[in-house]
């Protein structure tokens, strides 16, 4: 009976904390949608993970059973999910005897981006040839000129005198040199 009260109490607390991301599937099963961490007021970046937990008899002295096989988790590779399950098991062993679901969810929220990033890095590393792995990329990067805003252009032209009228004939030297290079045509 104490187990039932502990589970009920923890579920009520989790529902208050996670609100819309918490669902009670039955008396001893819950689902929590774990969104990646984000800054205050910003939308979370990345994919959400659906963690389903079953509370066995004897909880919290016995670790809950985790399930990441929800169809919404197909975006995560099997290796990411297995690493999460291994980590959850290790975390739960440290927290045996106390209510642990909130701590487990926070652990997943904190470590999920790192695990996904490591997985992506290892995938990139696997696709490279052994020679490419040994040598760093030697591609020269193209330098881009920074584009000036309208105000920057105006200040530039003001600074270098582009506002003043140019004196008549200031570019005649260029025209005369151009005309002198053209072949003369006979008047017909």
From TrEMBL:
Compositionally biased region (Basic and acidic residues): 122-153
Any Pfam family the entry gives: RWD
InterPro entries xrefs: RWD_dom (IPR006575), RWDD4 (IPR042770), UBQ-conjugating_enzyme/RWD (IPR016135)
SUPFAM superfamilies noted in UniProt: UBC-like
A GO BP annotation: positive regulation of metabolic process
Domain spans labelled RWD: 9-115
UniProt-annotated stretches for the region Disordered: 120-153
Domain of life of the native organism: Eukaryota
Protein name: RWD domain-containing protein
């Amino acid at each position: 009976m104490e187990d039932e009260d502990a589970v009920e109490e923890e579920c009520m607390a989790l529902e208050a904390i996670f609100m819309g991301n918490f669902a009670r599937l039955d008396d001893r099963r819950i689902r929590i949608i774990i969104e990646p961490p984000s800054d205050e007021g910003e939308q979370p970046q990345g994919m959400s993970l659906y963690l389903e937990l079953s509370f066995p008899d004897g909880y919290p002295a016995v670790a809950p059973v985790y399930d990441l096989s929800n169809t919404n988790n197909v975006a995560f590779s099997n290796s990411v999910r297995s690493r999460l399950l291994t980590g959850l098991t290790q975390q739960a062993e440290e927290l045996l005897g106390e209510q642990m679901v909130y701590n487990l969810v926070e652990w997943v929220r904190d470590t999920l981006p790192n695990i996904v990033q490591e997985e992506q890095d290892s995938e990139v590393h696997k696709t490279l040839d052994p020679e490419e792995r040994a040598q760093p990329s030697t591609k020269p990067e193209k330098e881009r000129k920074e584009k000036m805003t309208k105000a920057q252009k105006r200040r530039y032209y003001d600074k270098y005198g582009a506002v003043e009228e140019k004196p008549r004939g200031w570019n005649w030297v260029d025209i005369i040199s151009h005309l002198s290079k053209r072949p003369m045509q006979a008047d017909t």
